[in-house]
Amino acid sequence: MSKEDNMAKALPGYGTIDVPKDRVVPFGAVTPAPVGTQKLFQTSNWRVVRPVKDEEKCTRCLQCYLACPDACWVYKEEDDTLEWVGDFCKGCQVCIAQCTVDGALVAAPELDFEGGVVRLEKPF
Amino acid sequence: MAKVHEITVWARGVLQDKEGRDVINIFAKAAQAEGKHAQAFDNYEDLPDRVLVTVRKYVRLSDEEITHKYVYTNDKPEVVVICEATIVKGIDVLRGMEPGGTLIINTNRSIDDMLKLLPNANLLATIATVDADAITGVRTVDFSGSEGGVDTTGIGKGIAAPIVGAVAKVTGLIKKESLAKIVSDVSGMERGYNEVKIKHFKPAVAELVGAAAGSKTKR
User: Is B89 close to A122, i.e. CB distance below 8 A?
Assistant: First the structure.
């Protein structure tokens, strides 16, 4: 008899987890991802530069919106504008690299702006 | 027990991780060469392997043996060193500082610009800026040396050299001569020592403001 079988005989509950009936999910179940921004993981203080958009040059191709890993570009359909969510932008500049128009998105030093960064007591 | 001088260094993860660690190691080694007792260590909970995330490095210097060796953060830093100026905007870097502290920032901007970003600047007796990026150039020296690895480039080659020079001049905790024996980039260290811009606040005002702030923030 293998070790596992011995254990199973000695301890009937061995290898199983007691889950309440209402918490049981089928194997491979999908739990919903948090939608929108997460207040507990504000990453704006990682930022050294921020993307600045030229409204006139922007063609609304939405490449920045697609590329942003933190969903910091929000497209507002009703007034056809893109809004930048500064609290979560960590200045990775992917949107600037993906921008299809020269000069529509540029990196500007964060210290040139007042505010826009969530001030934390600890690194994160 | 003799006073323990606590220095906290803030740097950006990956890009300045080694430089930040160099600052603390240079200080600790120089202090030990002067016959002082020193401790130098990284923060335990920061994420130094994520780019641009702020990381903390700590040094403690004392004339006598430092007894609180199992406390692994500087809760009341006397000197705070900022390796990248934007950190001032996103973090309360003066947290825990007693009135009369010192802040040294690596930036090419003016001291007044930096003071605007510090809501609790009344804790400071001295603020200084050094443009270390211009002195040694913005460059990533080496990624080695993390997690106990061996530094192959020697310590103090990047922005760490001018920063330690500046800190030595502003605080007076370490002699420049003992730093020069340890730093690889001695000329960078000398330039940091000479080019640091210092602003002292008038002691009377600083004490008054500090006393008021101290009574408010007393824990």
Answer: no
